[in-house]
């Protein structure tokens, strides 16, 4: 089955609303490549989290100590963040190729995108590994700093063994306002890292750079267009809240109410709500995630169109792609004509 070829969107500078509308247009024209790829990667991430949950649940119910429960909670938090960032990196790299195919008028197919992406597999996997590991180290450092602060400073109060000297209690409590100073630096490092690596999956997939070059290129593009990038991220955050309230929450409630009406009662099975709502919410989340990543890729394209003349390169590629497609159609038509003229063998 061949993908339908649609006329490409115009290669011109876009404002934020036009970028959003173009992303919706791409998902409407090519739902299987965009939403399908995001759905597959989201399911893969869920399988990792399910496996971790199946491994951890017996440990938490077999009389684990408080320290062990805290350690498992921290590991679960770090693993969840790592899975989300890994899915983001892989989805961003794949959809970067899909968006370029759509902008140049080429057939938008996952098979072709994967074949093109295979040439850039090393930097793409390098960026994915970096996003999977490094931000978690920053969060782990933050948790360790807060844990050390509360463990050594507030342990007597937490254990119920308050010191006899009221001055010691007052000194311990006076440390609480300083917790924001402990959290500020790691959070700033995490946010700056997230901004610098925002375009890293896209640059790793589209530009002929090694891992270090792709990272520097991403940081340079973000730094040179920081107000525009921050404005887009802020609007994306507001759009996320609106989409969750308008679409995802009603889908979740509808699935729960439909099952309750079907059975005539609310089931007492633990976790039944998660089971019933998983399919519709996962599909809706994958569609939203595909739109979000497509917006990010289009923002990258828009930045390069404005500052680096990328539109001319894409038009040249579009022309070459149309010429190749016409040659391929002519060869296929010639082959069919020759097949029709060939005498049948009795």
Structure, described:
The chain has 346 residues and is mainly alpha-helical. It has one domain. It contains twelve helices and no strands. It has helices at 16-29, 31-60, 66-103, 110-118, 121-158, 166-173, 179-196, 200-206, 211-224, 226-263, 272-308, 310-341. The chain is globular, with a radius of gyration of 26 Å.
Strand-helix topology:
Elements: H1 16-29, H2 31-60, H3 66-103, H4 110-118, H5 121-158, H6 166-173, H7 179-196, H8 200-206, H9 211-224, H10 226-263, H11 272-308, H12 310-341
Termini gap: 31 Å
SSE ordering: HHHHHHHHHHHH
Q: What gyration radius follows from the Cα positions, in whole Å?
A: 26 Å
Percentage of residues in helical conformation: over 70%
Mean pLDDT comes to 76
Shape: globular
The biggest beta sheet reads: none
What ranges have pLDDT less than 50 throughout 5 or more consecutive residues?
A: 320-325, 336-346
The portion of residues forming beta strands comes to under 5%
**Number of domains in the coordinates?**
1
Count, helices:
12
Give the helix/strand class.
mainly alpha
Total strands: 0
Summarize, please:
By secondary structure, this protein is an all-alpha fold.
Keywords:
globular, 346 residues, mainly alpha, disordered C terminus, 12 helices, 0% strand
